[in-house]
Specification:
Layout lengths: L7 H12 L4 H33 L9 H7 L3 H23 L2 H8 L1 H14 L5 H24 L7 H25 L5 H27 L5 H27 L2 H22 L9 H24 L1 H6 L23 H10 L14
Amino acid sequence: MILPGTTINDLTDELVGVFQNPAILIGIPLAVVGAVFMSFGAQYQHRGVQKVEKLTAQDGVSGLTGGQLMRLLTRPSWVLGTVMLGLAILCQLAALSFAPLILVQPIGAISLVITTLLNSRISGHKPTRRSITSIALCVGGIFIFVTVAALYATERPISDGQLLTVLLILLGVVIVLGLLWGTLRKRMRALFYIVAAGVVYGFVATLAKVIINRIANGDFEWLTVLCTVALLAGTAMGAYFVQTAYSSGPPDLVIAGLTVIDPIVAIVIGLAILDEARGAPLGAYIGFGIAGALAVTGVFQLARYHPQVVSESQEIPIPRGSGDATEGKRPSTGSIRLTEAVSKVWPEPPVKDEDRRGR
């Protein structure tokens, strides 16, 4: 761990020493594979949600119904996407066991880029200059945020009082989000569900870390059980928000929110509650604020200027659909070469859902 007051020479030696560790050669590829699994998993889950909406003739913008959630289990694309997301989580945890956070977390942002290219190819909405700028803000902001955190954060034993504070704040967050969803869900759009899922998953990541550490130290008692219950409940709530977000927004927008908000919330918990940056200079906190603001701004800008969102809201005349009116036409927005390269490798998703009304 790099401590405050480290000189430039010491910092250089530390970073060089990191790459002298052979385990890095395992951790980095695992993080890349996890990012790829997350990208394809998001695309397939999004496809499954759209298919269920079509079969039930009911959109899930205001929240998926119980019947729609059950139907998702019968969609091959959604099931495959769920398996891929599970593999992404396993790869991420494995990568963290081999490589430091400063390397693993920024690599996860690759999933946003891959998902953008996949969705561009499948939906026909090419990234615009504004959407590319928004993605750059997301990736750059989270990279800076995690880098500063890795330089100054120190892992400390978590007291029962600190853990109870985390659980009480999570309970408050769940109550607030539940009230907002219950009273305003007919007016909510993708951004609410994305932010809500990111916030909840930030707490879930923190609890997962706590549980693993306590079990490893043989400290399995009632508070650990309570953390496990909270983790499972938070995971279910976050998953519901994510699936609903797929029904009201493109998959790369969902991934942008998760890869930005989730780690920021987890690190803020570590800084403010778990006291993992004790002794960090004022400049570090200023860096946290600037980097976090850049990343969150990128998410909000992407929600506003994403070409698919703009097209579906009729704000600009981008052709969509596969009818005669759009047959043979190609969107004229940017990044055509990149998406054409993707199309040569992956012309169509390998899992297709047939429109079987009996399901």
